[in-house]
Design a protein that fits this description.
The complex is a heterotrimer, with one copy of chain A and two copies of chain B. Chain A is mainly alpha-helical. In chain A, about 55% of the residues lie in helices and about 5% in strands. Chain A has a three-stranded antiparallel sheet. Chain A is flat and about 75 Å long. At the A-B interface, helix 1, helix 3, helix 5 and helix 6 of A face helix 1, strand 2, helix 4, helix 5 and strand 4 of B.
Chain lengths: ~260, ~200, ~200
């Protein structure tokens, strides 16, 4: 491979194709199928696409490219008459792909201008409405404007988070209570017991909180090191399982952990 | 003249307390007991004056349908010192793409969004909904009655837009009905590919 | 002179965004990168100017060592009118905020809700309870035995939710980048582990 490809660099097969078209300086209306297919294949190999969530999308696109490529080869094997027929009767096999690419490109560019607007908007600040409760003489019933839905509620919450961004650093802030590795080790063991001694690795990470993920991970490493748990994976890309070593009682773990 | 200054003073008070909710011309007229015409003229004068006066740190902007006070861009550095994680909020590339599609194509279903992007888009849609930037605006007809997504007022506020029409035009429109093409694509591909095998 | 005007502009921006909390001279000096002496002099000038200029609707008030903007007393009637005819938006905002907090953090006390929002929340809670969307679900342990609030079945019905778990995730929990980091983390971890065996 001539150069390294970053996994996060592409938003999917269309994004990758646009990147290649741009880099190879290909006319989007006259895509050289052989060249782009080769390049595309090389890239998805380099990206270890099988590990990505979008693996199937990348593979379907690979099949599409191969299919178009082979269709374009067809008329060459026939005589000139056939080629004429081909031109009259059939569309260019690339048409659908081209229009998809152009459509996607439009929104990719629109996304870029949204990003610019986002940056620009970051240059000025508003303030939340003042607390006017002091002006109220009587308790008032607040009614919702229209039918509100869950998303309105989330929107309101989001607005509040933005408001809370202000003022924060000049006051003393109570940092989130961090879970210690020791505590997390105990938690992992309890979870494993509840799961019958064997659980999917991913099931041990039900949270998206980065701090907790890291702590859980470190606690697992520690547990493995102390041979309290072991990890099992049958084949590459198979699910990973965490196993609690049998025959140990809770108190033993407690003792080991507290050491 | 004096009455105009009094009106300006009232408007300043009202816009100050209403914060990022802002107020419309109609609301300002009602609250200050003046005509919408007077409000329009006075707002015009004020908006110019705030920008021109170098000792002012705020100005009036029309955002998400209302008039609101915002800080001047020149002071962004001082304010960012006050704000926690000033840049933490920016959206990911995936979210921006999905948001662009929803903004220009609304109302639109998840499947239609995924057809355009060529990848699953459940997660960015979720993130955008959770951030209050898009919401369910209805249900598509036909089987499944898929959720239709559209942008919110928060979207306008977030990107500093007066209203949805203030979005910049999409890069040159392509001839033909692309959505149909995109929808047909998979079917055709499957047929073509199936034959080849 | 010009630098003094720039300082005034910065102070106006900062006092504007800091709202009811206000800022001390020391904080203002830090944020604007000037001396407390400069801040004192400039604030003095500004405080006088705001009072004298009839077209201004806000003025600077010193409260317990902090400086903050308040609306001018002369405009109290207009603000009173706003309070009596609140924009539907502002009402919804407060109620929805409190509702979101209760829905996601239940059971929760009023004090905890106020800690999250940073403002008094008695009224919105009262309103939501009156509408049957939230209710007392128990008492907190410890002194005072504060009321714990939670959502009702009526709440689920109102928002068309099957159960409380059907709520979409909170924005902080789906923060795009964090999720990506987590995914990447898992991938890397898996690689590392695969090799180890």
């Amino acid at each position: 491979m001539s150069y390294e490809v970053k996994v996060e660099a592409f938003e999917g097969p269309l994004d990758l194709l646009l990147h290649l078209i741009n880099r190879l300086e290909i006319d989007i209306y006259d895509i050289k199928m052989a060249e782009i297919t080769t390049q595309y294949m090389e890239h998805i190999h380099a990206m270890k696409v099988l590990e990505l969530n979008e693996a199937s999308e990348y593979l379907v696109m690979a099949a599409t490219l191969l299919s178009i490529k082979s269709k374009m080869l067809l008329p060459i094997h026939h005589g000139e008459e056939m080629e004429d027929d081909f031109d009259i009767q059939m569309d260019d096999p690339r048409d659908e792909l081209v229009s998809r690419l152009i459509e996607y490109k439009k929104y990719k560019e629109a996304a870029t201008s949204l990003q610019e607007m986002e940056e620009e908007r970051g240059l000025f600040y508003t303030r939340p409405p003042a607390d006017l409760s002091g002006y109220h003489e009587t308790q008032q019933l607040a009614m919702f404007e229209h039918d509100v839905n869950v998303f309105d509620m989330l929107g309101a919450f989001q607005k509040m988070l933005r408001r809370k961004q202000l003022n924060a650093p000049l006051h003393t802030r109570i940092s989130k209570q961090e879970v210690s590795i020791k505590e997390q080790m105990k938690h992992v063991i309890t979870t494993l017991k509840q799961g019958g001694g064997k659980m999917s690795f991913y099931a041990l990470f039900p949270t998206r909180d980065k701090m907790t993920i890291v702590t859980t991970f470190l606690s697992l490493l520690e547990l493995i090191k102390r041979q309290i748990v072991q990890v099992e994976q049958k084949d590459n890309f198979d699910e990973l399982f965490v196993l609690l070593r049998k025959g140990d009682t809770e108190s033993e773990f407690e003792d080991e952990i507290d050491e | 003249m004096n009455s105009k200054m009094r009106l300006m003073s009232k408007i300043e008070s009202l816009l100050f307390v209403s914060g990022d909710d802002g107020l419309t011309k109609k609301q300002l007229a009602f609250l200050t007991e003046s005509t919408e015409q007077e409000i329009s003229e006075t707002l015009e004068t004020m908006m110019q004056a705030y920008v021109q006066q170098e000792d002012r740190g705020i100005e009036i902007k029309q955002l998400a349908g209302t008039f609101q006070f915002v800080t001047k861009q020149t002071n962004v550095k001082s304010i960012q010192k006050l704000v926690e994680n000033p840049t933490a909020q920016s959206l990911s590339q995936a979210s921006l793409e999905v948001l662009a599609i929803i903004a220009y194509k609304q109302p639109i279903t998840r499947i239609e969004i995924e057809d355009i992007r060529g990848v699953k888009s459940e997660r960015p849609i979720y993130t955008l909904a959770a951030k209050g930037l898009v919401q369910e605006v209805g249900r598509a007809e036909g089987t499944g009655r898929a959720i239709l997504y559209g942008t919110t007022t928060e979207f306008l506020q977030y990107f500093g837009l007066k209203n949805i029409k203030a979005l910049p035009p999409l890069p040159e429109e392509v001839e033909g009905d692309e959505m149909e093409d995109a929808d047909l694509f998979m079917t055709k591909f499957q047929e073509a590919f199936g034959n080849q095998e």
